[in-house]
What we know:
7 strands
Amino acid sequence: MRKAELMENMDQKSTWDRFYTENNNRASTFKNFEWFFGFDSVKDFIMPLLQTGHHQDVLLQVLDLGCGTSALGLSVYSESSVPVRVTCADVSPVAVQLMQENIRHKAIKARHHSSRVEFVELDCTQLDRYFGSHSLDLIIDKGTTDALLRSREGKGKAALVLKQCLKVLQSSGSLLQFSDEDPDVRLLWLEAAVKEQGAAAVGFQEVGELRGVFYYCYHVTPHPVGQH
């Protein structure tokens, strides 16, 4: 698949089915494909939120939004010291099947005996068809919103995904967007989008520079948080 074709159509299910099929066919064995970076680059943004949100004997509900074949959600599942239920969701059934097969073959174990992980085919513009309102503690978006915003016809879908995230997040929950988009641009979009949804706060931190590109963590919560 040509890069220009991919960039223009990243909001389309068929694009990702083709991308993951071609990517898998080129490899002799399965290998996770990471957009931007892997779990180790951002675990210090993710894991503290699980610790602060933990209540004894309650599974924290975590969503890896647009997981593709990334190991991010699996890493949260395998490294969290508190019990979590991680749902890795993607619109591409090809990606979901590859990840389901991978976890069966590798038998990846959780750090906490009560933790669970699942891979589901899900259109992220329709989260409320799978999750109840105010049911999730943490949503992790590594490049999914970026893909939509950069697509020819994806901006409306990006706004709808954000609306859905705020609908299914608990009032104490968090949405983390990992992106290479400059804060001058992303914050304006986020602040305008959340304003339409009601009360929500937006902050950001620098992830750092990787391979010459600066990355950021945008933190959206249904209640005010301190600006970083």
